[in-house]
Amino acid sequence: MVPMSEAADFQRAQPMVPRIAHVRRRRHDAPDVWTLELELTDGAHFDYAPGQFNMLTAFGVGEAAISVSGDPAAGPLIHTIRAVGPVSRALTQLGPGEPIGVRGPFGAGWPMAQAEGRDVVVVAGGLGLAPLRPALYRLLGERARYGKVTLLFGARRPEDILFRHEVESWRARFDIDVDVTVDHAGSDWRGHVGVVTTLISRLEIEPAKSIAMVCGPEVMMRFVALALMDKGIGEGAIYLSMERNMKCAIGHCGHCQLGPTFICRDGPVFTFARLRPLLTVKEL
Ligand SMILES: Cc1cc2nc3c(=O)[nH]c(=O)nc-3n(C[C@H](O)[C@H](O)[C@H](O)COP(=O)(O)OP(=O)(O)OC[C@H]3O[C@@H](n4cnc5c(N)ncnc54)[C@H](O)[C@@H]3O)c2cc1C
Ligand code: FES
Fold first, then answer.
1. For 213-257, how does the pLDDT look when each residue is reduced to its tens digit (9 = 90+)?
2. Which of this chain's residues are annotated to bind [2Fe-2S] cluster (predicted)?
3. In the chain, what are the domains?
């Protein structure tokens, strides 16, 4: 087994060279969405911060940026992937024992240190719950460090609810408030119907001591950030995770550039204060 620090040093020195991992388990989470548990062949534990991402290689097909969705404190390296194109489809079709390339972790993650001592509002839309899950594990695993924790989660339909059993187990806890909504549902759905911003109007918070972490489709994040500002949370305390096309993930190729900002190197997590002017800049 390679010591953890040695493996991390190798990745820092050779950021374009993937390490090899094998799929340990593959689970179907929602239509077109699979979760892969990976094991690095060098046996090292994969150290990362909540909100960071890896470049995953489907050999012979290509690479894609995928956030880590597991528990940063323990367990295997976990990624949750929606099959939208050639690379993501190939990744989601990998079965147990098959090899996969892993470069990373990259980027600046969720503001876990800034959140200490404050109330934390986590807002996820659809697959956006995957990059937020490591932050939720950290918030719940080190519960005494944070104030009130709230998760607002919106999915398109009940069958799109990600990590359903886990969301239900969080909902049963007394130390986190969980509110779930779907955009559309049949008569058998007993929960809330409406976009995730409708949950924000009934949110009870002390805005001055709150911090928000938001991930989902870009338009959803923009509306959520504005609704959180209406509640009194400052734009500097609202953090969003951005997606752009990525190639190198280390600030060299310019594929992910948004104005003067490189999403891979400077983000993917940014405050709304920083992103707001950039969201009006046309993608390069
Ligand atoms: C920092 C970061 C973290 C990411 N984390 C995840 C993650 O945890 N899980 C995950 O599944 N994806 C994640 N993505 C998105 C993923 O990298 C892209 O979906 C990737 O481009 C897929 O590659 P592809 O070759 O399969 O499809 P492409 O050929 O790149 O795209 C195929 C088609 O799908 C569309 N498309 C691309 N991305 C998306 C998307 N996100 N949603 C809807 N349509 C899309 C494209 O416009 C195109 O029409 C992340 C991206 C970034 C930048
Ligand atoms: S992906 Fe190359 S600069 Fe960001």
1. 999 999 999 999 999 999 999 999 999 999 888 999 999 999 999
2. 248, 253, 256, 264
3. 4-106 (2.40.30.10), 112-241 (3.40.50.80)
Average pLDDT of every residue of the chain: 92
CB within 6 Å of ligand 2 — which residues? Answer: 246-249, 251-256, 262, 264
| Exposure class string for 163-172: b at 16+ Cβ within 10 A, else e | beeebeebee
What is residue 209's DSSP assignment?
A: G
Ligand positioned closest to the Cα atom of 127: 1
276: CA distance to ligand 2 center in Å? 20
Judge whether 272 and 113 are in contact, CB under 8 Å.
no
Q: Which ligand lies nearest to the CA atom of residue 246 in the structure?
A: 2
> How confident is the model over 38-47, as pLDDT tens digits?
999 988 888 9
| Nearest atom of ligand 2 to the alpha carbon of 247 | 1
